[in-house]
Q: What sequence folds into this?
């Protein structure tokens, strides 16, 4: 499971990742607990999927200035 710690822009992050689907990798929003956003992924390697999620978000207009962490739980 992918865990994103993000204090702001959570709705945009959820929207961005749930609409991503490339090279057989997609994300499904599971739950939100405070600053923590949990996602399942179709990727074989969750570590790589977490880094890809970070890259996807950083590539958005809001993500380039956003402080957040992407890890595997």
A:
């Amino acid at each position: 499971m992918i865990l994103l710690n993000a204090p702001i822009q959570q709705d945009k992050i959820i929207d961005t990742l749930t609409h991503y689907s490339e090279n057989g990798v997609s994300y499904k929003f599971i739950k939100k607990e405070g600053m923590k956003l949990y996602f399942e992924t179709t990727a074989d390697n969750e570590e790589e999927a977490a880094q890809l999620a970070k890259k996807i978000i950083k590539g958005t207009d809001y993500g380039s200035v956003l402080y957040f962490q992407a890890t595997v739980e």
